[in-house]
Amino acid sequence: MAELNTGGGGGKGGKVRSKKSNPGVDLTAMVDLAFLLITFFILTTTLSKPQSMDLSLPDNDKPDPNSTPPEAPAWRTLTVVLGKNDKLVYYIGLTDAPYVDAEINGKPKLENYGGKGIRKAILSHNKYVLEHVDDPNKEGLTVLIKASKSANYKNVVDILDEMAIIKPRSYSIVDVTPGDIKMLEDKKIK
Amino acid sequence: MANIKTSKKSTRIDMTAMCDVAFLLLSFFIMTATAKVPEPKPVDTPASTVKAKLPERNLLTITIGDSAVYLGMSDRETRIAALEAMSLKYDIAFTPQEINEFSLLDSFGVPLEQLKSLLALPNAQRNRPGTQSGIPYAGDISENELSDWVFYASEAVILEQQGRGVEKLKEIEVAIKGGSKEKYPVVKRVFDILQKQNVNNFYLVTSLRSEDF
User: Fold this and answer.
1) Which residues of A are less than 8 Å from B201 in CB distance?
2) Can you give the residue range of the structural domain that contains A98?
3) How would you label B41-55 residue by residue, b for 16+ Cβ within 10 Å and e otherwise?
4) Which of A33, A94, B83, B203 has its CA at 20 to 30 Å from residue B110's CA atom?
């Protein structure tokens, strides 16, 4: 609109000159402001939307007396014990008798959280298990998560997040046993 | 001279369309934006990569911060019904004004006997740090105020749907918003209380992060 009149103007004396004055409003500042506000609202709305993760716990009240808990063989069970100072211990097999054979060393190991720590360990064992089971669609790795008293909520969410990334066959949160506590003591993260 | 003619051309752009679009977007974002509700205890939630969205209705949010527990109910009807049931159970009567005031409260964290004095406070003072001490959750696993609130809130949700004649009843959704540094036994206790009330699926409220941490 604004430029429509700028080039115009005949040469018909002073009266025409007054017509040359620009009728359009300068919208630059208004657009600036509008975009500033848009940016503000885009940023605030996306940040304030809370994310969440699902957590399903077993039904405690109605244990089915006929069904035995699904027993996974020791070499397919990996237990993660969460200790203090954002450290954890993991082992393969039973608490008292970690599974050890030619290919798997299931002895308790101290580990950190995150991609370089526990995720790498679980991923490699998950891969190993999937390569060695009869039917990878029906059987796989079971991860038991045991949070000790000294672990914090962030540790639990972190390890659940690892589960969401690794997607083992099954995982569950279970209570710590005295054997696990002793393990944490040995690694000085009780 | 041709050169002079081109220099006469205006360098200004027509901003009208741009302005229109900008304001259209602006009004869209203003309308969709949800106002941030003040909370009695702001907590720093742990990060996760999972991007599930929280439901907006029939939601009970349990905030755990500094070992204290705070409750938030998403619907006004649920708040009113739950408070009425609680007042019967604990034999503390509330006036209609107080019930109405409570139905406007997004989240709270005081023992029931202190709820009256909390509702008497002006809005701006309620969420001052230290005003709300948290809902008691010690004692028997199914006989404490937190478990009663959970029980009556879920009952209220069911009753409200039955009242509307909904065919497929939806149970209440529970979200847990815990602080990163919360000790696990506190969180575990809340899990146990929820499990005792047959709430076995819930959401953990987290903030977002990428997978390479």
Assistant:
1) 54-57
2) 74-186
3) bebebbbbbbeeebe
4) B203
pLDDT of residue A19: 57
Task: Please state, rounded to an integer, the average pLDDT across all residues of chain A.
Answer: 78
Which amino acid does the sequence have at B147?
S
Q: Does the distance separating the beta carbons of B175 and A154 come in below 8 Å?
A: no
Q: How many contacts (CB atoms, under 8 Å) link A and B?
A: 161
Q: Give the residue extent of every domain in chain B.
A: 47-208
Residue A122 within any structural domain of the chain: yes
Chain A nearest-CA residue for B32: A45
Nearest CA among A102, A63, A93, A57 for reference residue A75: A93
Flag if B26 and A34 touch (Cβ within 8 Å): yes
Q: Look at residue A147 and tell me if it is in a domain.
A: yes
Residue A109 belongs to some domain of the structure:
yes
Say whether B184 and A151 touch across the interface (CB within 8 A): yes
* Domain at A87, CATH number: 3.30.420
pLDDT digits (tens, 9 = 90+) for B183-206: 899 999 999 888 888 888 889 988
